[in-house]
Amino acid sequence: MEKKENYTVSIYTENNIGLLNRISAIFLKRHINIDTINSSPSEIEQIYRFVIVVKVSESDIKKIITQIEKQIEVIAAFFHTDQETIFQESALYKVKSKSLFEERHIQNIIKNSHAKIVTVSPEFFVIEKTGFREETEKLYKDLAPYGLLQFVRSGRISVTKEPLNITEILNEK
Amino acid sequence: MKISGSEAIIKCLLEENVDLIYGYPGGAIMPFYDSLYHFQDKINHVLVRHEQGATHAAQGYSRSSGKVGVVIATSGPGATNLVTGIADAQIDSTPMVCITGQVSSNLLGSDAFQETDIIGITTPITKWNYQITKASEIASIFSKAFYIARSGRPGPVLIDITKDAQFEMTDFLYKKHKKLRSYNPKPEISDNSISDACTLINKAKKPFIIFGQGVILANAEEEFRVLMEKTGIPSAWTILGLSAVATDHPLNVGMVGMHGNYGPNVLTNECDLLIAIGMRFDDRVTGNLNHYAKQAKIIHLEIDPAEINKNVKVDVAVLGDLKNTLPKIIEKVEEKKHEKWLQKFRDLNHIEYDKVIKDDLFPKKEKITMGEVIHQINIATKGNAIIVTDVGQHQMVACRYAKFNESKSNITSGGLGTMGFALPAAIGAKMGAPKREVIAIIGDGGFQMTIQELGTIFQTGVPVKIVVLNNDFLGMVRQWQQLFFDKRYSSTEMVNPDFVAIANGYQIESERVSKRENLKESIQKMIDSPNPFFMEVVVGKEDNVFPMIPTGESVSNMRLS
Predict the structure, then answer these.
(1) B470 touches chain A (CB under 8 A)
(2) Which 3 state secondary structure label does DSSP give A69?
(3) pLDDT in tens, B112-140
(4) Measured between CA atoms, how close is A72 to chain B, in angstroms?
């Protein structure tokens, strides 16, 4: 069996209804679980960028990329290893305000983790932390004993170290 | 001047030179059918008996004519009944545009009567699909749909149109699509890949070509024949490549794959260069990939980048349209003959002839064999007919033994293996090539999957010839049960009705043949008839198709019995 690795798939697309289905169907067909997925506008107007993280073998990811690129409204697709990208995830933690004021320790946790307090209200406060998975997870573990009302983490967002020449690709086509 | 959305759809079809569509009306598509009423002199609508029949008929039409097949159906069940045909067209790269009605846009997502998410359902099996909710979108979306369906590697496209968009009034201006910024139907040809391929071809001592449907889809039959003849390379067809060059061409060494010929399968593992042209290394072609052409350098000529290195790792990939890449290769390759190497194919095929083919075509046993039926059809048609096959034993036998002089003559469900394909596909094939003889060869199982299309034949009078090879079994599954499941015939025996009586019910002239001495005469009668004709041939119940590569085996371990 070929070794499986984390790959970040970056896909530039037109902004069309149903395209998410079309892309996820390619993973579904091969029985591959999507670890995280994020879709947002890209650096080019009217063009969207998907960032998908999957754990697969290198030969599989190559085939998946060509099958994604084959979709009519996909402009280009790329895959990169963790070493080839700069990536981050964001997490939000909602905690009871009472804990913040009563447990001095929690203030140290926030300070040491370089997290940011987004909102404070009489009932709850919301902490935001952006970083690697291990960092947001560590903060989760540290805060959990004090009672997390809600926790949510975004999909990975990532840019590549090498340039991706989408404008050139668009001009060529 | 404003026109209704439904009239706009018809105007789009006319802009795309569509004069024939297959369909079935229903609630959500009624505005379209109402507009069609006023255009009956320009567009012939064939009313099928089930929407699946419409898709296969459109496929048959496309495969015999090279044009885009068009299908129309209503929402909900009408749309879901298209699914099998769309999946078939997708895997066999058949250009098709399916139009489905949809509930009004204000009802979308409300589980309205006959509402189904056909966009969601068909996403993985279409080249592209789109839901129109405004009449103003119709012209540009249809133009895009036809462009996508027929360009590059062709495939099916589905357009879903809400009922209110069909009623809505709109301006109409049709502009043909020639380009989409996110889509590259014709990959640029790399000169390096051409010269690398030619170097390998010129060096090879034992080169071997496998050609697929890509040759036909690119209209590159002539270029392919020139390449084959200039290089003298023995060439074998995949099931969908069949008829791209004449079956009797001296360099045509037979069919590759599970029930292909002995020579090309065994020698796949002996050649020093394998040149794959417009084919996709399907598992039924390659058998066990770990023992597939490992000794050979491999060149892959292909239009779809996703097929490169998908199943077989290649040494040189020549991306591009065969119509453009083949001439560049022809120019650079040396003229050669490979007589000794070619003789090896002939020698092995001769072994197959002695052990298998002779008894198939000239049997001594009492019951009629499928092979001799095909053989007699070859004699009667002189290899000039279009043969449409279903799926199973009869399909393998027909594709092994049918003779073809012309391209686009072999129409079968290759990738999906859709039983029920042949009868409706034959209707479409005849309408796409009205001057040609079209013979559907079908098993008793598959025939009953779309038997209702006899009604379409009756109503249109389309003169297709239907040959049902009846062994009262789902023969291919029974063969596997015999060979690999200790003869446990689980749910494969069929108690069949009187097929001739059914055909007579549709007033189709018909004949039942169970004795060898009547076979030739009945086939001649069928060919001579200017009308639709149905013929049932009773064949041996437990005959098997050989040779065979059992699943998971190497192509060189082909069983002759």
Answers:
(1) no
(2) helix
(3) 999 999 999 999 999 999 999 999 999 99
(4) 5
Q: Indicate if B225 and B80 belong to the same structural domain.
A: no
* Residue A1 touches partner B, C-beta closer than 8 Å: no
Query: Angle at Cα B428 formed by Cα B403 and Cα B10, nearest 5°?
Result: 150
Report the alpha-carbon distance of residue B299 to residue B271 in Å, rounded: 12
Q: In total, how many domains does chain B have? A: 3
Residue among B359, B391, B415, B399 at smallest CA distance from B474: B391
CATH number of A88-153: 3.30.70.1150
B51 is catalytic: yes
- Tell me whether residue B227 is in a domain: yes
Q: Is residue B544 part of a domain?
A: no
Name the closest residue on chain B to residue A47, using Cα atoms: B182
Name the pairing type of β-strands A47-57 and A34-41: antiparallel
Partner residues linked to B254 by β-bridges: B236
Asked whether residue B20 carries a pLDDT value surpassing 90, the answer given is yes
Mean pLDDT calculated for residue range A133-160: 95
User: For the complex shown, is ipTM > 0.90?
Assistant: yes
Q: Which among A29, A62, A75 is the nearest to B182, CB-wise? A: A75
**Is B550 a member of any domain?**
no
A4-80 matches A88-153 in fold: yes
Residue B258 annotated as catalytic: no
Q: Which residue of A has its CA nearest to B305?
A: A66
Q: Which residues form the domain of B249?
A: 191-345
Task: Please indicate whether residue B208 is annotated as part of the active site.
Answer: no
3-state secondary structure of B153: coil
B121 shares its domain with B205: no
Domains of chain A, by residue range, sit at 4-80, 88-153
B182 falls within a domain: no
Task: Indicate the class that CATH gives domain A4-80.
Answer: alpha beta
Is B100 found in the same domain as B225?
Answer: no
The pTM for the full model equals: 0.97
User: What angle (nearest 5°) sits at the alpha carbon of residue B253, between those of residues B252 and B256?
Assistant: 115
**Does A14 touch chain B if contact means CB atoms closer than 8 Å?**
yes
Residue B182: which of A22, A63, A72 has the nearest Cβ? A72
Q: What is the pLDDT of residues B59-75, one digit of tens each?
A: 999 999 999 999 999 99
Radius of gyration, CA atoms only, chain A? 19
**Residue B114 and residue B219 share a domain:** no
